[in-house]
């Protein structure tokens, strides 16, 4: 019979971080370890199970079938470890936190929420995606604890977490930005500051435009842009790998900065909501440091 030795949680945490961060270097940075230490942890874990846990010859670390099974157990063990520490030290957080966020800013969520759940496994997160104007009303009514929004005249207030450039974006390989009138992919009238800014800026410099595609979701707008049907307006953090910032030499007008704000429900916040707010604040402010030179112009 196999001698089941206790597994090292530190090594398991390294394994989970390598997979989640997409590589040994990123995992080393996140864990504040030397890359050689991360490699040593993975070697020790594979020697323990006497089989590979990550597929070889791939750019990103993809678990083997055995690695997938271990990954699930490792996450559970790390969650239980966090709960044990919080229980014994009387620092455990429980309850439900309701967070609202626009579809445009879902890019901010996965990593930040994953880290929060790992740190506070006793907290249940409920995420509601919607329009900024609706999310602000929901926070004020108390049906949401927190909301991240694009600050605009119809959704004012909140704590500004960061400012991002507002840019024109198109698909590489298309000359959509040179068409007349300029075809635009924008959100519904009256609910999106990006649409209002784009039209006002074009009118101010006399560039004719037409609404070619309307959608309430970022995925719908970017699909039209990818196909070369239109260009759109967004922030660099919303750019996918298949869209690029349109070079200023194309003659499109400059757009004002966009403010991303955090709204909290009235009254004394729950401790879990307060901790989530601090986590989101740190994550968004770190992410908002955007290097525009990395976005290739169309």
UniProtKB/TrEMBL annotation:
Which InterPro entries does this chain map to?
LTTR, LysR_HTH_N, LysR_subst-bd, WH-like_DNA-bd_sf, WH_DNA-bd_sf
In terms of domain of life, where is this protein from? Bacteria
Q: Which keywords accompany this UniProt record?
A: DNA-binding, Transcription, Transcription regulation
**Segments forming domain HTH lysR-type:** 7-64
**Gene3D superfamilies listed in its UniProt record:** Periplasmic binding protein-like II, Winged helix-like DNA-binding domain superfamily/Winged helix DNA-binding domain
The signal peptide here is: none
Family matches, as PROSITE patterns: HTH_LYSR
- Carries keyword Repressor? no
Family, similarity comment: Belongs to the LysR transcriptional regulatory family.
Which PANTHER family does this UniProt record tie to the protein? HTH-TYPE TRANSCRIPTIONAL REGULATOR LRHA-RELATED, TRANSCRIPTIONAL REGULATOR
What is the name of this protein? LysR substrate-binding domain-containing protein
